[in-house]
Amino acid sequence: MNMWLSELRQATGAEWVKLRSVRSTWWCLVCATALMVLSALTLGAGTATDMVRDGAGRPFPASQPVTSATSFAQFALVALAMLAITSEYASGSIRTTLQATPIRGRVLAAKALVLVPVTFAAGVLSGGVATVAVYVVLSADVFGGYVALPLTEVVPELLSVGLFFALVSVTTLGVGAAMRGSAGTLSTVFMLLMGVPLLLMMAGSRMAFEVSLRMPMFAGLAFMGSTDTPIGGPVPYSAPEGLAWLLAWTAVAVGAGYAVLRRRDA
Predict the structure, then answer these.
(1) In this predicted model, which residue has the larger pLDDT, 266 or 15?
(2) 197 burial level (CB within 10 Å; 0-12, 13-18, 19+)
(3) Which of 154, 86, 89 is nearest to 124 (CA)?
(4) Residue range 166-205, pLDDT digits in tens
(5) Which whole-number Å values give the CA distances from 39 to 133, 152, 223, 225, 262, in the listed order?
(6) Which of 9, 74, 126, 209 could form a disulfide with 36 if both were Cys (CB 3.0 to 4.6 A apart)?
(7) Residues 157, 40: Cα–Cα separation, whole Å
(8) Quick check: 156 and 128 in contact, CB under 8 A?
(9) Residue 249, H or E segment
(10) Is residue 64 within 8 Å of 51, Cβ to Cβ?
(11) Which is more confident, 56 or 48?
């Protein structure tokens, strides 16, 4: 067991060096923050404008539009997680990685162990920056002051944003291990996160609608308690159920990636 943990620690250290030493990682993190801030401000301004027009309503937490903004900002971290594995297939360096760590499950585990804390921190920090930006901007008189900053609500929501981003990144890693190419991975993850759920919603079938609500995007919005979703309100099931669906999708993606990584040559 000690030997296994030691080798996993060494593999994780190598993956951390790879991730932090390329500029694309930092650009993805910057883009995630920018998308989070811009999307949250847009959504928050829309909510505040409606409240000013109606002349009623209680102040909403500044983190509320941030949870909804994750639907857009998540794709910057999808790109980061995708490049963590597909770039190695593109350059051929995956052969070196597998020679250094022959147990392929350990390679996938090491990449996940690096991605999870990075994307979790990115979610919390970018969400925090967006929350402060929403509070500062929407506190202006023109928006009616319908915004508040209750830490008892903001902190749990930011932590849920971080966990959502971490799970999405690991899901992307699994898809990337299965697809092996950037184009296929990005297309598949986009369809999984946004394309298929929205298409199912437009199908007009009750069963298709219920299926769409259990896919990663809506499961994540339910987990984060978002009230501004594509269905015009909160997802109609609890946060724990949303987390359960997210974990299930992540497990399926990682299982598929591991199966391909184990069976196919690099």
Answers:
(1) 15
(2) buried
(3) 154
(4) 999 999 999 999 998 899 999 999 999 999 998 988 887 8
(5) 11, 23, 19, 17, 39
(6) 126
(7) 14
(8) no
(9) helix 239-263
(10) no
(11) 48
Could you report the per-residue pLDDT of 227-242, keeping only the tens digit for each? 777 777 788 889 999 9
User: How far is 192 from 171, CA to CA, in rounded Å?
Assistant: 10
Instruction: Report d(CA 68, CA 235) in Å as an integer.
Output: 12
**Residue ranges in 55-181 assigned as alpha helix (H):** 64-91, 94-100, 104-138, 151-179
One-letter amino acid for residue 231 of the chain = I
Dihedrals φ, ψ of 57, to 5°?
Answer: 120, 150
Residue 116 near residue 170 (C-beta atoms within 8 A): yes
- Angle among Cα 44, 209, 42 to the nearest 5 degrees reads 10
Query: For the range 35-38, what are the long-range contacts, defined as Cβ-Cβ under 8 Å and sequence gap of 24 or more?
Result: 35/69, 35/72, 35/73, 35/75, 35/76, 36/66, 36/69, 36/70, 36/72, 36/73, 36/126, 36/127, 36/129, 36/130, 37/126, 37/129, 37/130, 37/133
Measured CA to CA, the distance from residue 233 to residue 221 in angstroms comes to 10
Residue 193 CB coordination number (10 Å): 23
Hey, what are 257's tokens? Answer: 């990636």
Model pLDDT for residues 49-104, shown as the tens digit of each residue: 877 787 766 788 888 899 999 999 999 999 999 999 998 888 888 888 888 877 88
User: What are the distances in angstroms from CA 127 to CA 16, 154, 155, 197, 210?
Assistant: 23, 10, 10, 24, 29
Residue 177: Cβ within 10 Å count: 28
Residue position matching structure tokens 């929403």: 134
Nearest to 262 by CA among 88, 96, 108: 108
Distance CA 259, CA 254 (A): 9
Question: Helix, strand, coil proportions of the chain in percent (round to 5)?
Answer: 80, 0, 15
